[in-house]
Amino acid sequence: MTDRFANGDPTNDTGGLEGDRYATGFDPTDTGFYQGGDLAGLLERLDYIEGLGVSAIWLTPSFANKPVQGVGANRSAGYHGYWVTDFTRIDPHLGTNEELERLIDELHARGMRLYFDIITNHTADVISYGPAGHSYIATAAKPYLDAEGNEVDLASVAGSDDFPELDAETSFPYAPVVDPAEADIKVPAWLNDVTLYHNRGDTTWAGESVTLGDFAGLDDLMTEDPRVVDGFIDVYSDWMDLGVDGFRIDTVKHVNEEFWAAFTEGLDAHAAEIGKDDFFVFGEVFDADPNLLAPYVRDRGFDAVLDFAFQSAALDFVNGAGSAHLAEVFAGDAGYTTADGDARALPTFLGNHDMGRVGYLVRDQDALARDELAHELLFLARGQPVVYAGDEQGFVGAGDGADRHARQSLFATATPEYADQPLITGEIAGAVDRYDPDAPLYRLIAELAELRKSHPALATGAQLERIADGSSYAFSRVDHAERVEHLVVLNAGGREVTIDVPTLTPGAAFSVLYGETDATTADADGVASVAVPPLSAVVLVADRQVGAPDAAVAPVFTSPEPGEIDGIVHVDVDTGALWSETSFSWREVGSDEWHGLGTATGPGARVVHDVRPLADGTRIEYRAVTIDAHDRRTAASHVVTTG
Predict the structure, then answer these.
(1) What percent of the chain shows pLDDT beyond 70?
(2) Cβ burial 64-86 (10 Å sphere, 16+ → b, else e)
């Protein structure tokens, strides 16, 4: 959160505005107003960030915002960046477009990347509905009408070139009202057209209002209209041209699915045009159910989504609720597998600026140890770990721990609430700068980041669960090229345990890479005994490549069963090997065109196939090609029928 990280240029604290805090948005004594952080401060503190082992920075939205919104006691500033009025320039409280270019250049010179937090769901609150109020009005009560008075079903025309013309006075359940002083406040200018918004009232967070309602009163865009799709592709293509390396997209589940298919396709096309094939797009789908998260990767064009499921399970695990939830989340990883990637691309995290910091979310008893264990799990498990700035200094939060209570500044605060909060160590935060490279969590995170960098298996290797038993959890990470087992064992209990772990490498000697334990040797069946201290993690590495059967074994399909299939289908094979990689594809029987479903690792390999678009009675041939640790290739086919 740029406003809360470092203040490198106090001359921009008021954003060039004059007046009191309700005019400028600046009040460093209040949690709900600008505090002074900016891009200049980020540039000054890059050594601190790089020392943490960071490979990319994700900035909360940096576009020009409405400085202050709300009424009475609810008035606050747009320091967080989610009340955008101008999508083409940096908010003057944070700096300039030229400063952003300098930041990008410096990051790239250090081998680091910049991800921008972007919004397509809404703008700042400019539209009101006058005395009619703002309660949500359902489409069943008042359907949309085109300019000629005919009913419009948005779902049936979403993204269509034949999207109907709408009339501001007659097409919507509420007639939109805009203060003349703000009639042209939004940039690009097309955003000032009130017919490009849903104008249906505040979301109730359920049913159709999730995508049609105003998010906390913000102007909810008519993302079904192709003018909005094309407009945002143009807007964000310009930021790609400036050098941004990826986008985190806000409030994804509050936008219709058709928008995402077209929008992500447009971004991909522009990335290809400018030679940025590794441009990374990940979405915020605020839900902890992998079955609801995965379709955004499989079907809607996202490279990844923020792994809220991991966050929920990781906190359960370190807080003593056992490993079952964690095992359940990882068991759902097949849902993210596509021909282009899998769950290893998911950004994983422990807390954020909305839900609160991990330091607040861990149990009070042994809080620092639990916080450290959570970070060990974050960095050792599959995914791309994300650290919320300030967690490395041990910030905790107060009150309910969420939103503004979790948005402490790292530079010396003038906010009494922040100054009086204890850190995870018990020390009072105080009104001092907090960029201490000797802080316990800073040191730990830097160590874990270096461990991942030095051992690719821990960063991008496949993950195979070994044990999920009470407060113990173990998994193996294996790099595709190296094929050496890295064994990770975690203990969320309050006493040391010795765990018999079934490894992938019978007879191997395992040396210690990380943590306090002893070297061990796997027996002929592959079982190794590992001692793990309380609230700790250890990592051991084998002295040889993973094991393989004496002879090649062809994969055997175990799912779907022969017969008719429908819906979301699990496609499973048993490879008969401790470690193997299996690539899946499908075709309609009689066709020469194969469609990749992705690659899965392990003896029980799984991918997911959505057959709903296929007509009933379609005969499908699945093909599985398996490579074992000795590079022996085997294959099998399986035919089923939709219906």
Answers:
(1) 100
(2) bbbbbbeeeeeebbbbbbbbbbb
pLDDT for residue 190: 99
- Can you give the pLDDT at residue 508? 99
State in words which class domain 1-118 has: alpha beta
Q: Which run of H or E residues covers position 624?
A: strand 619-628
Active site residue 303: no
Domain borders along the chain are 1-118, 127-220, 351-454, 457-545, 556-642
Q: Are 127 and 182 in contact (CB under 8 A)?
A: no
The most distant pair of C-alpha atoms in the chain lies apart, rounded to whole Å, by 80
Vertex 463, ends 461 and 464: CA angle to 5°? 140
Mean pLDDT value of segment 493-521:
99
pLDDT at 144 over 90: yes
Q: What's the rounded Cα separation, in Å, for the pair 599 and 608? A: 11
Kindly state the average pLDDT of the residues 634-639. 98
pLDDT average, residue stretch 40-54: 99
Question: Do the first three CATH levels of 457-545 and 556-642 match, i.e. the same topology?
Answer: yes
Mean pLDDT over residues 453-474, rounded? 98
Tell me whether residue 285 is exposed, middle or buried, using C-beta atoms within 10 angstroms of its C-beta: 0 to 12, 13 to 18, 19 or more: buried
Cβ burial of 433 (10 Å; 0-12, 13-18, 19+) is: middle
pLDDT value at position 364? 87
* Cα–Cα distance measured from residue 411 to residue 572, given in angstroms and rounded to the nearest whole number: 52
Active-site hit among 202, 225, 258, 284: 284
Find the catalytic residue in 9, 224, 250, 628: 250
* pLDDT at residue 558, rounded to an integer: 98
Q: Are 115 and 59 in contact (CB under 8 A)?
A: yes
Residue carrying the six token digits 């009675």: 617
**Cα gap 604→582, rounded to integer Å:** 10
Looking at domain 457-545, its CATH superfamily turns out to be Golgi alpha-mannosidase II (2.60.40.1180)
For range 621-629, the mean pLDDT: 98
User: What confidence tens digit (pLDDT) does each residue in 312-331 have?
Assistant: 999 999 999 999 999 999 99
Q: Three-state secondary structure along 104-151? A: HHHHHHCCCEEEEEECCCEECCCEECHHHCCCCCCCCCCCEECCCCCE
Q: How far apart are CA 392 and CA 400, in angstroms?
A: 20
Residues pairing with 65 in the sheet: 84
DSSP 174-238: S--EE-GGGTT-SBSGGGG-GGGB--S-B--SSTTHHHHSBGGG-EEB-TTSHHHHHHHHHHHHH
Q: Is pLDDT of 559 > 90? A: yes
Q: Tell me which residue of 393, 385, 369 sits closest to 490, measured CA to CA.
A: 369
List 495's β-bridge partners, or say none: none
Average pLDDT over residues 519-534: 99
- Is 284 designated active site? yes
pLDDT at 475 exceeding the cut of 90:
yes
Distance from C-alpha of 83 to C-alpha of 123, rounded to nearest angstrom: 6
| Tens of pLDDT, residues 260-283 | 999 999 999 999 999 999 999 999
Q: Is 556-642 a domain of CATH 3.10.450.50? A: no
Give the closest residue to 640 by CA, choosing from 582, 588, 583, 567: 588
Q: Indicate the average pLDDT of the chain.
A: 98
φ, ψ at 494 (rounded to 5°): -90, 5
Spatial CA neighbour of 526 closest among 454, 474, 455? 474
